[in-house]
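Hi R.,

Quick one: here's the ABC-type xenobiotic transporter sequence you asked about.
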Amino acid sequence: MQVFLLPFRAVILLCKSHCLSSSKLQSSEKCKQNQGKMNQTKLGEANIFSQLIFSWINSLLRLGYAKPLVLEDIPTLLSEDEAQSAYKTFSSKWDYLRRDGKSNDQRNLLLEALFRVHWKETIFAGFCALLRTFAVVVSPIFLYAFVQYSGNERRDRLEGLLLVGCLVIVKFIESFSQRHWFFNSRRSGMRMRSAIIMAIYQKQLKLSGLARRRHSTGNIVNYIAIDAYRMTESLYWFHLGWSLLVQLGLAIGVLFKVVGISAFPGLAFVLIIGFVNIPFARTYNKCQSLYKVAQDERLRATSEVLNNMKIIKLQSWEQKFKDVIDLLRENEHKFLAKSQLKRSSASVLYWISPTIVSAVVLLGCLLMKSAPLNAATIFTVLATLRSMAEPMRWIPEAASMVIQVKISLHHLNTFLLDDEISKEESKKSSNSFEQSSALCVEIQGGNFSWEPEESAHVPALRDINLEVKRGQKIAVCGQVGAGKSTLLCAILGEVYRLSGSVSVNGTIAYVSQAPWIQSGTIRDNILFGKPMEQTKYEMVAKACALDKDINGFSHGDLTEIGERGLNLSGGQKQRIQLARAVYYDADIYLLDDPFSAVDAETAAILFSDCVMAALRDKPVVLVTHQVEFLTEADRILVIEGGQITQSGSYAELLSTPGTTFEQLVNAHKKAVSELVTSDTGNMDETRRIHENQLELPGESCSEREGSEKEISVEGFPNIQLTKEEERETGDVGWKPILDYFYVSKGSHLYILTILSYFAFSALQATASYWLALAMRFSKVNSAVLVGVYAGISTFSIPFVYSRGLFATLLGLKASKAFFSGINNSIFKAPMLFFDSTPVGRIFARLSSDMNTVDIDLPPSINISTAATIDALMTIAIMASVTWPVLIVAIPTVIIAKYVQGYYLSSAREFMRMNGTTKAPILNNVSETSQGVVSIRAFNMMEMFFANYLKLVDTDARLFFHSNAAMEWLVLRIETLQNLVILTAALLIVLLPGKHLPGFVGLSLSYALTLSTTQVIMTRMHCNLSNEIVSVERIKQFMHIPPEPPAIIEDMRPPASWPFEGRIELENLKVRYRPNSPLILKGITCTFKEGTRVGVVGRTGSGKTTLISALFRLVEPESGRILIDGLDICCIGLKDLRTKLSIIPQEPTLFRGSIRMNLDPLGIYPDNEIWEALEKCQLKAIVSSLPKLLDSSVSDEGENWSVGQRQLFCLGRVLLKRNRILVLDEATASIDSATDAILQKTIREEFPGCTVITIAHRIPTITDSDMVMVLSYGELVEYDVPLKLMETNSAFSKLVAEYSSKYRRNSKQS
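And here's the predicted structure, written out as tokens:
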């Protein structure tokens, strides 16, 4: 007995070597902390033996067994595995192929480049796969030899031991070659993935405007989340496909060797199965392609919805957009169901083929007499056909995966070959300009278009001639859509230059019209990769009027900004963006309407302290609608219809009557004329206001500082808005699996799956046992033997079909339930959830995690269940022949379970951390896509590229060690199972007495499949443990505390509510979170019905929060808001929001048509839409488009100017005609003349309505019936404008500042 236990003891010692004492572990952790840096992976210093058995990962697994791993515990990658190395090698091959290729080349250059880079690793992995294939095919020959040996009357024990030795060598070759095939294939796949992700990111930084419209942000995120990540497994599936074909061919050769021509009927049946599968495969692949397209469309729409959730909630469009997503998901799920059911049906052929083919072959032997029907023949045939079963089952799967990889390569190749911004668009000098060169920007005869020359119908800019000299301040003005922003883009090289030349001499800083803010801290956004210089930093913060805002934040400038600056006001975002530009200290400044989002007093500070003082020696091109600043400009350009129609100083332009410039100035003069007459003219007071940075009245410097201190104290808990991503730690046991069954309500389907497969496996074992048993009785003739075997095998077919069907139905049911749960939860989540949760984090759940639940989990559950039953059945059959094998088998199973648990302690954390490291990759690429123009303008592509490399490497190092740990485990499990096979073979050779050849054949035919079965079981159990993490992650977002219900049946307001539009605020207090400071601090006032109320206050004073409270984006902490006497907190959100209209501060358009954007619910006829377009000054431009109302709107409305987007938003409210209208900086991005027309339109179209206007243009406020002044969340003043202007009020000081500007303009003109 001790002889049998010797190898068993050796394995125990091997396992013990991985479990050092915890005291050593703790001391190693302390050393690690003292070092203060991560170690590189141990693979680089491992010897050949350590690499062979994966022992180099022992220390990490030991640490993971002792405590839950965190990201800092994971070693860094070797340099050759890092993204930078992978991308550099790939990039050189890619660039060579692009230069070498022809324009009409139909080759997939991406595939060719990848092959040229990775051909050595591919050949090595292929050699390992081939070695493993030979080892698998040789195994049935050993079975034949063993059965022949056991049937000999006189057995030579030495011969038997030699057979055992050879069998063990073959099994170890199979094991080691397969492990290194899998590991190296995935390692190469990881390098390919990293290189492609970086290539996508780099391409994104170079995409032209036209290409950006073709590839939306959602598309680019999808290229990484789905297509690039698919490359990880591509080499594995490629090698699996061809090696299984070789294995099938060799197995057929063995079959011919054993049974001769009797193999032909079996081979014919195999070919029939193959031909029958062709239509299945075609249908399956078609469904897969359609599923992929449907998934892309759903993810694109999801990305758009997540990025624009605020406007969706304000307009109460949740149900509409949820229905759109549900419809897209339904279409996606339809193709998923079709493909999975086809796959399930096709798999039946491969599960039953070994038994049916074996029956046909044995029948051939019976009829053709080409081989005797003895135990050696029968069980060698069975073992050979079992080795054929693996190819029969997995070749279609491999083919399917290779097709999916091909589709992904096509997507990626198309993207990487798309149009880039031309390096010749502008001849920029990256160095600072020479002192001798006074000319900074020069455009000569420039014609520019957003379309390339061959498809450009009308240039966006025509005959542009421009010179900007050092220190010059150039102002650019014009009406909405005239081409002002396009001129800046022409200087930046963002548009196609059809003719002429552009020369830029020096570095550029650019401030975009729509603020682009990065996730991170305020400091990160201002520094923008530059080193911290405290004095300069403070000067910039003050010049950009940010110092007091920074002091007001509980974390100062280390306050984390939510995604896209969601926790900042529009003015704060614009000033941070301006501070970024000033701190950058560029040679040339391009400012695109930077004052539109800030109030008048702040705009005055920014213009004087920032543009005129901080940038006094810099050339500045300023696009602006604020006419009051034009007098300070050295030169003014007036753009009309894409041409510079006027150019000169303020006085020169005014001297020419009847021009566009005169119209703009006259509109401005008319607007401020009332202010001038009402102004007290107290210039000393105005001067004092300016010196004190426009402090509000009744609030001294010390009082304001006290207010800021109060805010800091209230924010004492120091919790940032963006929460760290949650993840489970440790072993959560069966909970996720039980959650999977509970949510899907599919427990009964799983039970039926188990019963079906158990019946199938039992019948298969019975058929094999019958063959062994029949060998004992000479009375059983060959016809009966084959007939009974065929009958039992045929009877098992319905069970294997039902098993596949039940498992597929379970997966589809779970897929539908989980998506429905998370989608419902997200649409019902409050706005705070979206403010504090990065979109990439939500998107990861709806893309990669959902893909895991759709595609990966069902087969993992199915196959792990089947492999477990097969393993138990195999051990039972082996024990029935040689029961002493249980002495080794049972402890082996126990040790295997322990080793698996040891591995899973680390593997679970790998998978959980991987979920949190993938989201930043997607989030960052989305953020970069939105700010790519700014990144290019600042020439910061290299910095962003380097930061992205770190994110990719962090994700890759988790995958790398997870992959290595899996192979570590499987190698040890295989070693244990090889011990069981060795024991069974030794027992046959060493135990006294004669063993019946039939039972020897039966035992060994099952024993040879044990290691494969055990490996599949272990791998699938581990995959299941890893993939079930996606269930955990999705379930986290299925239980987001919802916002109040959309409709409360018992509290529904009348259909005609609000009757009058009276709004009463009663001691209104609002904070965004329980531990955050109060934003509104007890506001009490009444907006009378039918009045126009202007709301003013310094940026960040709480104006937008007041609107959020009115729409219940945030619930009041205390106090009430009454509309016509009805407490809005008592009714449903939909009933409230549909009765209010808003034009938001940041205009939002959706991808689709003009009609869809104006009327998403489809309730208005075309004539009313055209009427609304006419009133908001858009009818002329829409009428000129070929498709009229069906003309396209690209992602986020990028093919329309910001001003035009705001006009579209005005069109929406003109259609709704509600009694309460909110204008939140509604006309900030349009010129004064258009603003005046629109204000008149609003007055005419909304008579008797309550209009609440937040505006930074004082004239927009002065014709209001009432004015509300807010300061730091408190109501400072609320009265009639004329009354406020007659007193020493905050409002009068705002007017004084504004009118003093006007006076200066008048004097200079």
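Residues 1-38, 425-436, 676-719, 1305-1309 have pLDDT under 50 and may be disordered.

Cheers,
M.
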